[in-house]
Design goal:
The chain has about 270 residues and is mainly α. The protein contains 17 helices and no strands.
């Protein structure tokens, strides 16, 4: 190679916008974010910022005079998120933290609220809720089986599964279906009349109480008196004369009558 060609070649290398050193730093930065995202350490943004400091990613010729960088957050984020999806990890890094998952699931099993867990662990409530969906489900104990069958008249299958959502849902359904079927007497002890007085239609009542035969629901619904009985009105007025407030009456009669109905009866009582 002649001197003139060497000079030209060296000059060309000097004009290359980014160098091999920048490529090496990019690989190190992306690898760092990828590895620690799998471990559940902070967010991609936080990891990227930390990596660029650790590997001097933007120093030297790796950032142009107009601010263009060889390694960008957008490219790093896309690569890492794609790899997380392919390899079965969460794209939101913190959700890959096994220790954090254990704490969240432990709190959930202890009935700690999602909001409390989020505040204690520095998480978003949405993150806690998402992690809970991946908690292992508890087996249904004999005590829980007894509770489910004891409440079968008041809760349909959907409501029961929601109430006991931290348990194995297949087991919950099997237990529920094995409970003795509720009877017409059981239905008469439910809040069906309260719902009628609150404005429920017949079809809404049949849907809510679908653990009962529809003809039983229809009969009971029609038998519900859609107003406060005369004897209850007398009792309400007597209670008012004793100086009791509407809120005290709601504690007495709130299970059977909606608030608006009790308030109307209270206001209709003679002033003397």
């Amino acid at each position: 190679m002649t001197v003139s060609l060497q000079t030209s070649f060296i000059s060309s290398l000097r004009n290359i916008e980014f160098t091999w050193d920048c490529f090496d730093k990019k690989i190190s930065t992306v690898t760092y974010v990828y590895e620690y995202c799998k471990k559940g350490l902070q967010s991609i943004e936080w990891l990227f910022k930390n990596a660029t400091v650790t590997y001097s990613t933007f120093e030297g010729k790796c950032t142009t005079s107009v601010g263009h960088t060889y390694t960008t957050l957008a490219v790093t984020k896309k690569y890492v998120e794609d790899r997380m999806k392919i390899e079965g990890y969460f794209q939101e890094c913190i959700l890959n933290n096994k220790n954090m998952m254990k704490v969240v699931c432990s709190n959930y099993a202890k009935n700690v609220t999602d909001e409390t867990t989020a505040e204690e662990r520095g998480l978003e409530v949405s993150q806690v809720k998402f992690m809970i969906t991946h908690c292992p489900k508890e087996d249904v104990s004999p005590r829980v089986k007894k509770l489910i069958c004891g409440l079968v008249a008041d809760s349909n299958l959907k409501e029961t599964k929601e109430k006991y959502k931290k348990y194995n849902q297949t087991q919950i359904e099997a237990v529920y279906k094995s409970c003795p079927p509720p009877t017409a007497e059981d239905l008469s002890k439910t809040n069906i009349c309260f719902y009628k007085r609150s404005g429920y239609t017949m079809q809404q009542a049949i849907t809510k109480y679908n653990q009962f035969a529809s003809n039983l629901v229809t009969t009971q619904f029609n038998e519900c008196i859609n107003e406060i009985s005369a004897s209850r009105k007398v009792l309400i007025c007597a209670t008012k004369k004793m100086g009791n407030s509407v809120s005290r009456l709601l504690a007495y009669f709130g299970k059977d009558y909606p608030q608006a109905m009790i308030e109307a009866a209270y206001q209709a009582c003679p002033s003397k």
